[in-house]
Amino acid sequence: MTKALLLSLVTINLFASDIPIDFVKKHKFAKSIDVNAKIIQLSNAKQSIMSLLDGHIEKYYVKEGDKIKRNQPIALIDSIALSDMTSKYLSLKKQFNSLRKNFQATKALYKKGLTSLQELNTQKAKQDEMISKINRLKSQLQTLGIDAKKLKEPTSEYILYSHNDGVISEILQPLHSVISQQTQIINVVKEQSFYLKSFVPLKYAPIIKTAKRATLHYMDNDIPVKIDQVLPRVDEKTQRIVLLSNIEKRIDDLFIGAYTAATIYLAPNKEYLAIKKTALSFFNNEWVVFVPKDEHKDHDNHDDHTNHQEIDEHQSHDDHNDHTNHQDHLKNHEESSHTEHEEEIPYEPRIVKIIETNDELVAVEGLKEAQAYVSDKAYYIKSLLLKSSLGGHGH
Hints:
The two termini are 15 Å apart. Helices cover 34% and strands 34% of the residues. The longest helix has 32 residues, at 80-111. By secondary structure, it is α+β, with helices and mostly antiparallel strands.
């Protein structure tokens, strides 16, 4: 046995123990429908951030596509109305301090009998009215994110904050725009509010309500989605039934309005022999599954090989002095060694026909129930068989 052949056999035996083996089992499959679909967002998933006062957009803290959190700064607004409001607030506070002093003085005089109760009540009413005006302004300032207690001088700037977590889908007003109160500045899309809108041919109308789940095929990824509802009206443009599915899994780079493919699964209705999807391999232009070679067959081959070696050894001993026969013996031994190398790969391909599929399994014809098969790493066995085939061609 050559050194290269020995190394190949050791490699095969080493990895054979790591090859996962499973058994063919029966499994109920749902009928699947491949359809066109569109990624959408329902109208209640969008929110607009609006200006709270007339003003001027000084700065944006975000850009389109940014993911934001609740109460995150969005934009800096400069507003003359805010400047007037804060000036008035500070002025009212000064007036209140004067009124409070007057009330305390009137109260002291009243206790001494030097002023009337009516005068005391008048001062009290003025003080209460001022408190009401101050509290009203204080509440408005808090809405703008300004802490009135910390306000020492008039200001014209305030910051707009986000109301919820989401993604900035569109900036509606350019920087330095002059805006009015209640002007929409930015649109925010709530996270995890994307839906898959699938278009199903009308011929499936009698059974489409049995559909419970689907798979979104997006950018080489298969994402399971749950079907929420079958809309009662067909799509006017396509004249197809519309299914809405909630995309619960978070997906990066998910674009609203993108057309994609989807698979709709109806209620399970038929049982097939099934294997794992990872077991399938495309080999010699056919779908195959690798299975362990028949042990009895391998044993017979091993006996034949042993007898062949014994004959070779006897022939080698008898013809030891015959140089020509010795060369023929070496050639036969190399061919025998090559045959041994091929037989050492303990798996062989079985051609299968694909019947149905789901996210993890595939229904096939061509295998028997409880038959052992390679459930993963089929690529490794395929490479060994291809190398063996190329090596045989070389000899």
